[in-house]
Amino acid sequence: MQLIQTVLNEITGVLEQVDSQKLCEVAQCIQKPCRIFVDGEGRSGLMAKGFAMRLMHLGYQVYVVGETITPAVAKDDVFIAISGSGESAYVVSDTLKAQQKGCTVIAVTSKPQSTAAKAASVVLTVPGTVKGDSEDVRGSVQLLSSLFDQSLHITLDVLCLMLSERDHITNSTATQKHW
Fold it and tell me: Does the keyword Cytoplasm apply (predicted)?
């Protein structure tokens, strides 16, 4: 049980560093009826899919980049790049394309100086440890990017809660969109 407490303490430490003003700025970018595209690789991609699902429950038109039914991005779409390192090859490539097409680009990353972050209009930093971090800066007992992934999931759920409150979407309304 000591490990559970250690992990909870690590997550709390990361979440306390998430800038609430930046979270509000991201929420301002996500407005109906815009199209939202989320992108991520590996476990960040899994968190992106969970986020997309929750946005759908809130009534947003949302797509996951890389799925067969995802259309091309266009000017005025919102593109959300999710990458702990901010250097995931496909995410960076997609982010640069979205930027060129005139999308509002949001980067959610642990590394605010990364390539994906530099291409973004808004950067939301979730400063959890990621797999490329050296041992002297890891700050986590957990493997690879677990701390980033866990903190990311909670941060994105909080963002959805903010959107639901702003848009007056109740749990009952969201449940009606659940499969």
Answer: no
User: Which H or E run includes 62?
Assistant: strand 61-64
* Per-residue confidence (pLDDT) for residue 141, from 0 to 100: 83
pLDDT number for residue 45: 97
CATH assignment of the domain containing 166: 3.40.50.10490
Instruction: Count the helices and strands in the chain (H runs, E runs).
Output: 7, 5
Domain count of the chain?
Answer: 1
Element (H, E) at 35: strand 35-40
71 domain residue, yes or no = yes
- Quick one: angle between helices 146-166 and 20-29, nearest 10? 60
Question: Listing from the earlier edge strand, what are the strands of the sheet with 78-82?
Answer: 61-64, 35-40, 78-82, 104-109, 122-125
- For 75-176, strand residue ranges (E) read 78-82, 104-109, 122-125
| Residues 105, 95 contacting (CB under 8 angstroms) | yes
* Contact status, residue 78 vs residue 34, Cβ threshold 8 Å: yes
Residue 132 has pLDDT above 80, yes or no: no
